[in-house]
Design brief:
This protein is an alpha+beta fold.
Amino acid sequence: MKRFFLLLTSATLAVCGCKDIHEPEDAKKPDITLTIGNVRSTSESITLTLSAKGEDLDIYTRWGVTYSETAYKTMGRAISVDGTPSDGSHEVTVEGLPSETQYYFWGWAYDREGNRIWTKDSTKVSTAEKPKPMPAKLSGTVIGSVYSVDYSNSQKSTTVNIKTNVFDGNYDTYFASYDRSGTWVGLDLGKKHVITKVGYSPRITQPGRVELAMIEGANKPDFSDAIPIHMIKRPAPERQMTYEDTYCSRGFRYVRYVSPNDVRCNLAELEFHGYADEGDDSRLYQITNLPTVIINTANAQEIVSKENEISSNVYIISENGTNLLATSETGVRGRGNASWDQFPKKPYRLKFDKKQSPLDAPASAKKWTLISNYSDKTLMRNIIAFKVSRLFGAAFTPYCRPVDLIVNGEYRGCYQLCDQVEAAKDRVPAKDGYLIEIDAYAWKETHCFWSWKGTPVTIKHPDEEDCTQAQRSHIENFFNQMESAAHRSDFADPDNGLRKYLDIESFLRNLLIGDFCGNTDLLWSVYMYKDAEDGVLYTGPTWDHDLSFDNDYRSYPINANNDFIYITVPSPASDAVREMTDRIVKKDPEARKMLAEIWEEAYEKGGLKDLPAYVDETAALLHESQELNFKRWKILDYKVHMNFQALGSYDAEVQFMKNTIKERLVKFDGYVKNND
């Protein structure tokens, strides 16, 4: 703690130690008032008047200053007033204050023997905010991508259209990077600076090439610790500077402009304004109202594999820039099947070096997913399906939060940070058992089997490297026994039929969730888990709903069907499962009764009727992010993957899905209750 220096105007004050600060139980308060007033403050000092008034002034008054409301209990220093003049007033200036912006002053009264006879309640006094230096246009060493392009011959160059041009004050010169992605230009400022404003001007005739460009700051020359300072969200006018204030309190030595994907770094001028300061993390930049996830891979490698992780630094900025999760040595790789193989907007898996609960997720875990939702132009079908799962009372529903994603300085779009489907605490409750998936893509895996009825099954837990032959044999045999029981004439027998192997209630909840949502993949992507050797198979969790709610030409229009979707939209990969499902739903009276009860509970009491309103809420949450996403991925006018249609706007896509849900509520209610 810094020493306090005291300047006195009408009395002598001293810095001293305090003892016996606990007030005696039989203490009698003197007829005296101790007050603080006339407070004046700067960033470095507080000036105030300390007053002691009353009938009995034949006492000592002593004043203390602390950093917290309760710190007086252990305080070793105090401002002391020995004796009191007739008016009891002293103006005191406390200087040399540290960085704290608020303090607590205490008053004590002592008799002539030095016994404390009264303590005044604390009074909070705030200092003025520390004035910041005046920002100025910054200079430094020019850094950036090595090669430019010579447009006269389309060849690499280090002498024509070079990066120093963006700092020469001339709108007619420019930097044109040779490569079309991952290119950048910036400054080494020599020491840390807080950036308060950026200015930029695009290459003449190319105003759109700055749109979605990222401006980053870092304190490592390779930008492995880079975080965003600002994002340019629209084209900029030529032959003039566009200035935008920035709101990032961290200090950076290195600053740069990163060109958008598949666009040459075409920039005429670039400016950074700010002041020299270490800064802090009290306010960081978010692209939109959503949390911002930043991935900086080792050596800026592109993520191209589902098998091989790349060590990365990962940052998650949330709560209006006031909360930061920063991790190093996080493994990042691709994930998914069709979403990885067929989509340009790739999904990813994160594996932190230690357990984390990003964005207040319920689970503390190492593995997390970033879902791309490329074929879902509402960007929310998975979010809505997870809501439906919770309304139907599923034992576990994955946590998810929409986020904006940056990878190596490049904006990638609106994603969904989500639980990894795994057997673990606060996730699938099968840590000591088994997690499997009825999986049409099982043929791509090595840790899998085909049942006697031809159902493809992938073993998710235990992992292949940890799974013993005995464990593999057990789960394969158990699944076959379940399928056999499902096809026997006595399958509905409560003791020796299907219920001996399958928890019917969880199976029906999962069926209602998927079928209500109109998930075409309902029966060819089904998770099941078994929590012990002697347990039964439970069904869930809900997963992979980007084609739900009439987003698949194979099932459109779902509300024209007169039966469950698992009946009307069969899949060859799930023939055996469909047959089993049909027997449960149509030929087991107790299961049929349970199905109706689960539906009624969710429909009448669980809030399912209010789902269209939740769609509106989610659309409002995603509004700013979706605008940027569809600038990055220009697909609103095009059908992608299994899309039945392309409506041309985000609002139209959301309205269509909401109308589908409204119709689905009426339609589904009818045949759940009445289908025999």
